[in-house]
């Protein structure tokens, strides 16, 4: 049986399921431990380095980390509904609880290096690029047609989910690094921008065009039918302050959920969501659907829109076909919000500017470097591969900034810098550790909400109140410290099986070497996505095999081991950002 190479940075990174799943690879257990210790400034800093917008993401992230969380797997026999650690809402705790002293932790930009970079659009991808490059001495200019930065974070996420003060604060940290902010300056020509002599251009203008539905009655009902993302922008800027009594929202994504909940707050007497797919197949995050239903908004699945019904020049309802039965129904309404998807639009990029586009109108990019067919032009966020989410846009920004930095130092963009990795023993004495390794049996805590009569009365009242200090500590203790790894030294092992006896998950097995190892473990390792830790070199010729999938990282094996063959070592992975560390050795040496 092949032995595990724990020196491979990806091995223990994959064991930290939450960090592995996060597009920006935020070291989740690290910041959760800091929250449990009341060190909120440092917890916010860990997030800021990785994901740039902790306060924004702590309220609005799509949470790819949470379905991956080990807690949800090991709780399967303890809880009727196993749930992960509330990773996203703990991120908000760090943001809300940090002190003014955090500003002193912000780094100072390096001296200007003479290179100029333009960022088109002021959304999360562009601002991530701007932050990373400004810190390294690049003169970064951000262009946007709006008066304030943030992109769709500001224009399309309702204030009851994300207060404007949070956007202002976190965008301000970036602009405060010396980034030039060109408010109200929408770029209308790529050729003209390139003629200004920028060394590189990053396009992060999002997917600004909402899809329409060309159904019968659409032209006749145009004043009462709106594109969802445009309508949300109008609400955000105060251009729309009321709605008609009966509203239908078409679509099953997060934008549809924002539309229906916003309409509810703007005075609609009834709001109905209609989606052509099944409920389980909706693209909206499960919690977004739950929040809408919690506010009394019905979601009708398998409803295929057929026509806009109208009389005397006004919308009267929508006709649908129920996909499961073929029956046609008419739902009365006075206003319709269409939220059936978004698409990219680049009318300002001339087709002879040297940038290739595919048949879908998307730029042809190298998927690792985000470089377009015009070498000095890069794309990221929704502008790159279509609509995704904030954390993915941030990850794109980091990678594009690395690419720009390498390009402007004459290096191969296809060679991506390896992450920095550390493994540090947590021993404090023979059997004591520098972290709390007690496994909490508490179930996931509920985030308190504002009173319904208050929350539904205003579009600007934040619904979720966030965890208080006591609840945050309790939730943080649910984290299983998956970044503190069980590291085995076979030369010290006397094969007493003490670790096997004490393991609460039966995930350690000493067995004969050979094939079909998963089937010969004390508890069969059924999750093929997670590796088995295999070490040989034992005196009897057997191998030690540990199923990484369900290990609690409790340290009981290390505490029981009489020879210290098991150790608890904290794994830290720091992905390379733009700057000297992301460059080849020769270039780093020149820079020094």
TrEMBL record:
Short name of one Pfam family for this protein?
Fer4_20
InterPro entries reported in the protein's UniProt record: 4Fe4S_Fe-S-bd, 4Fe4S_Fe_S_CS, DPD_II, FAD/NAD-bd_sf, FAD/NAD-binding_dom, Helical_ferredxn
Span of domain 4Fe-4S ferredoxin-type: 484-513, 541-571
Note the superkingdom of the native organism.
Bacteria
Q: Which UniProt keywords apply?
A: Iron, Iron-sulfur, Metal-binding
Q: Where are the transmembrane segments?
A: none
The signal sequence is: none
* Iron is among the record's keywords: yes
Gene3D superfamilies in UniProt: 3.30.70.20, Alpha-helical ferredoxin, FAD/NAD(P)-binding domain
**UniProt name for this protein:** 4Fe-4S dicluster domain-containing protein
Q: Which organism was this protein described from?
A: Pelomonas aquatica
